[in-house]
Specification:
The chain is an alpha/beta fold and 210 residues long. Helix content is 33%, strand content 25%. The strands form two sheets. Strands 3-2-1-4-5-6-7 form a seven-stranded mixed beta sheet, covered by helices on one side. Strands 8-9 form a two-stranded antiparallel sheet. Helix 1 packs parallel to helix 6 and helix 5 packs across helix 6. The structure holds 5-O-phosphono-beta-D-ribofuranosylamine.
Amino acid sequence: MSEHKPLRIAVFVGTKGRGSNLMAVHAAAQEDRLSATVCLVVGTKADAPALLRAQEAGIPVAVIALGEGYDVRLLAALDAARADTIALAGYLRKLPEPVVERFRWRIVNVHPALLPSFGGKGMYGHHVHEAVLAYGCKVSGCTVHFVDTEYDTGPILLQRTVLVLDDDTPETLAARILPEEHAAYIEALRYLAEGRVSVKGRRVRVAKRD
Ligand code: GRF
């Protein structure tokens, strides 16, 4: 048992995402596979499918519209929910600098490829898998990384690989990677919950369990 306090995770979702990573993290927390509570789900538009899923599951949501004072309103909602960790799940924007600064090494993202390849602006969803197949890669996978103020550039916590098959389409590849994303995200959050993570430059070390 970890003597650390359970994480209070705010999950940031996008306008189009299904919310599958959100629900995987929430389920792990509910079932005590992860010492955490999803204390808030944050989106920019009220009709985002992932926000609706969160509401159905009884998780508090905050709709924070973009525009003037976005960073201040975000921080206020995070403080009100007493969030100590942020997990991006389909949130495709850069985070405002004050948020990154306040939550340094407490913000993670999951990306559906092996960074630093196939990341950066515009590399999301099917675009990623199309690019992996067009390049002819033999492996792909997912990356859980810390978030800084750029796209997909923060230090890497965890990667999982899958083989690319000769007859893969972007859809079949995405479908094989998605469960790896869920497992990787939960595992990485568990490292944080257990206080085992240290960051030095770009290198992230995960201490062995006591
Ligand atoms: C996932 O593929 C994740 O890697 C990327 O956005 C997608 C979100 O999917 N960052 P979901 O909404 O969690 O199902």
